[in-house]
Amino acid sequence: MKKYLLQSLFVLSFSPLFAQDEVLKKLDSRAEFYGDIAKQIWNNPELGYLETNSSALLQKTLSDAGFKVTAGVADIPTAFVAEYGSGKPVIGIMAEFDALPGVSQKAVPFRDPVVVDGAGHACGHHLFGAASVAAGISVMDWMKENKIAGTIRVYGTPAEEGGGGKVYMARAGLIADVDVMLHWHPSSQNAAGATSSLANISTKFRFYGEASHAAAAPERGKSALDAVEAMNFMVNLMREHVPMQTRMHYVITRGGEAPNVVPAFAESYHYVRHPDALVVKEIFARMVKAAEGAALGTQTRMEYEVINGVYNLLPNETLARIMHKNLEQVGGINYTPEERVFAEEIIKTYPVGVKVSPDDATKIAPFVVSEEGGGGSTDVGDISWLVPTVGLGAATWVPGTSAHTWQAVAAGGMSIGQKGMMVAAKTLTLTAMDIFKDPSVTEKALEELNRRRGEGFSYEALVGDRKPPLDYRK
């Protein structure tokens, strides 16, 4: 009897469910540690390509845990690759950590900036980076304890918000041998479907004219601001004549210094998006023609700089079904009474018609497969056309919250955000474990990638051969 009991205990200790439970318990025990890392990054929001402290903190955390870290890759000072193990399969986990300008906010359920017009983590990348690092370390520990063959990597990817860090890392060959790439993103819901995004090209159009006294000698001036306004007028007229899914938006970043001086320089910053990267390229070419026409009509000179260009996400159902299964196992989050009060106050700030409940954070969205791009754009898109890629969204924000808002910053700076972050860390960990245990998954995922991108596909970065725009946020 004793012999059979020992055998049963031996089998149980090496069963998949037992291993998963132990890994998840260990992550739970370190939730406060990783939450503190995220909070440090939240307290010191750094814009794209300027994330010196955020990147250094994540690198140190990985290095202290036993990863080999290579910093400053792809000619980007804040980009890094952390690696453990050797051989196949190679599984990557991407980590973002850049903030957004102008959305500074305290962790309170009403508008209250920390610094007026300051930066803030309105897309939750402080949580993104911390959870991905947590998952990488968790997988590494599991590999060590169970003598699992293969390689786990954490990619520190700067400047997702318009800087396209991943594009340059891919172009530098840093993902060439990766079999599967995992990622996640903060969200107002828990979801892991096989869905897409919008391709995007963002560009700064610069116009150069001649300054003059606007009252005494206006005839001598050539207004660069007139050129910007003429271009923007023509771009707005284009809206009637582009495909329905197109999104075009802009800001005037420079419009002159004083009303009584004809502006010699002006600049506008444009985005054009669509679910198909080829359509984006076609509409962008028309936008350039509008800029050229504006310069001709105002007798100014125009030049433009492509700041960023990203593909749409290419779904991978093979991987997404594994990710969804693990997300369902992990489950959503339950609010404490204090968190529920916070959430209810946030919900009161939404526009009329947004019908949500704090209880929605406990739910897992149904599995969806769709190549119709929706929402925003991400440089993960380029990675997904090169390597089988899968991601999830975790409810780090109060249900109903939109990204890039003060409400997102507020929830991301307190326990609601940190709870959602751990849902992501656990799901990423379990998904990587599943793939290591069954390397045939990588073959199926690659077959699907090849089928979706079609025969003869050749990757060409939408940014061309430009260098990383390290000063785009300065």
UniProtKB/TrEMBL annotation:
InterPro entries reported in the protein's UniProt record: Amidohydrolase, Aminobenzoyl-glu_utiliz_pB, Bact_exopeptidase_dim_dom, Peptidase_M20, Peptidase_M20/M20A_hydrolases, Peptidase_M20_dimer
Pfam families to which the protein is assigned, alphabetical: M20_dimer (PF07687), Peptidase_M20 (PF01546)
Signal peptide: 1-19
Residue ranges annotated for the Peptidase M20 dimerisation domain, each copy included: 202-294
UniProtKB keywords: Hydrolase, Signal
NCBIfam families the UniProt entry points to: amidohydrolases
Protein name: Amidohydrolase
Provenance organism: Algoriphagus aestuariicola
